[in-house]
From TrEMBL:
SUPFAM superfamilies from the UniProt entry: Immunoglobulin
Record-linked InterPro entries: Ig-like_dom, Ig-like_dom_sf, Ig-like_fold, Ig_sub, Ig_sub2
Keywords assigned: Membrane, Transmembrane, Transmembrane helix
Pfam families, sorted: Ig_2
Name of the featured protein: Ig-like domain-containing protein
SMART domains in alphabetical order: IG (SM00409), IGc2 (SM00408)
Residue intervals of the Ig-like domain: 82-170, 175-257
Entry's transmembrane regions: 266-290
Species: Oncorhynchus mykiss
PROSITE patterns: IG_LIKE
Length: 353
């Protein structure tokens, strides 16, 4: 009679030997089984009464019909009736529908053909990329997104060490996160070259890239990269790309290209710097000379003379340092010292004589 097991260990009792009076020993289990069972088979029987075989870590390739055979020093016995049939089946993940596009719904079901006698209403544990993600009989994703893509497996609660085989959920979607990058970065000088690159996330991958310049109807180029050589001021403007696959399309954000004038040669720049320095030196020298000459003039013009009165021996001078807007300060200056005439006492008679 055939049986099915999904437990990690199985006890097989193919034949119970009621009596063995003959001398001899039964063959041990590892000698009966093929090398593929190494380390997973244990013989628990009593040589003279019964025979028990335990197989651990069951695999689908363990599925077979098992019989017992014993041998003595006088005879070998082998049953003519059918042996015990072992069918090993694991948990299976089924994805419905098999192909799903982002925004649709998908159902993942964990199933087995075995009867779980110890837990008929078992709860299944779901794993995504090896990590627990949910705990339910079925996994419903509605709507499904690109983040849901991955490898899914399941196990029965209480037997978490027995995962099903992984089933990959593939979600198709149109281009996302479309962007443009420029190389080389920095200032773009007239006469140089520049390359624009378009990148986008899509499944299946983008199969067509188209380049456009803003406010220009016709496309500029096709392909993931667009190179502009010997760039000029006419090439300045905003550029963007369109990414397409079988699920849709998406435009990138526009990228502004600014073209600067041609760079001056190193020699020309050096000459210009020297000229500027010389001009600054000349200006500074002229300014210092002017300051010195002004200071000397101030020292000699502190007092300014005014033409004297012809009928007077007194000169009038204007003090330039103390003059004010309201009036001028005048100082009397004589051109010669005052002469004191001595007083002589004399009688009138002296003159008469």
């Amino acid at each position: 009679m055939g049986h099915q097991w999904t437990y990690p260990a199985l006890i097989l009792i193919p034949v119970v030997i009621q009596s063995l009076k003959q001398s001899g020993k039964l063959n041990e289990a590892p000698q009966i089984l093929s090398p593929g069972y190494g380390g997973r088979v244990e013989y628990l029987g009593k040589m003279q009464s019964d025979s028990i075989l335990r197989i651990t870590d069951l695999r689908e390739e363990d599925s077979a019909e098992y019989k017992i055979r014993f041998r003595t020093d006088q005879t070998t016995w082998e049953p003519t009736f059918p042996g015990t049939t072992l069918t090993v089946t694991g948990l299976q993940v089924k994805v419905t529908p098999a192909t799903v596009t982002e925004g649709q719904k998908v159902t993942l079901t964990c199933s087995t053909t075995c009867t779980l006698s110890d837990n008929p209403n078992a709860t299944y544990i779901w794993y995504k990329n090896g990590h627990v993600t949910n705990q339910s009989n079925s996994l419903f994703l509605n709507p499904v997104s690109s983040e849901d893509a991955g490898r899914y497996s399941c196990s029965v609660e209480g037997h978490e060490d027995l995962h099903s085989a992984e089933e990959t959920l593939t979600v198709t979607y149109g281009p996302k996160n479309t962007s443009v990058s420029v190389s080389p970065s920095g200032e773009i000088v007239e006469g140089s070259s520049v390359t624009l690159t378009c990148s986008s996330d899509a499944n299946p991958p983008v199969d067509k890239y188209t380049w456009y310049k803003k406010n220009v109807t016709s496309p500029k180029a096709s392909g993931q990269s667009y190179s502009i050589t010997n760039i000029s001021s006419e090439d300045r403007g905003e550029y963007y790309c369109e990414a397409q696959n079988g699920r849709g399309s998406m435009n990138s954000t526009a990228l502004m290209i600014i073209v600067a004038g041609k760079q001056t040669s190193v020699m020309t720049a050096a000459v210009g710097i020297i000229i500027v320095v010389l001009v600054l030196i000349l200006c500074l020298s002229g300014f210092m000379w002017f300051r010195r000459s002004t200071a000397g003039s101030d020292a000699t013009t502190g007092i300014q003379s005014v033409h004297p009165d012809p009928n007077s021996d007194t000169y009038t001078a204007l003090n330039m340092k103390t003059r004010s807007p309201e009036y001028d300060t005048l100082a009397n200056v004589r051109d010669f010292p005052t002469v004191t005439i001595p007083h002589i006492d004399a009688d009138a008679s002296d003159y008469e004589n």
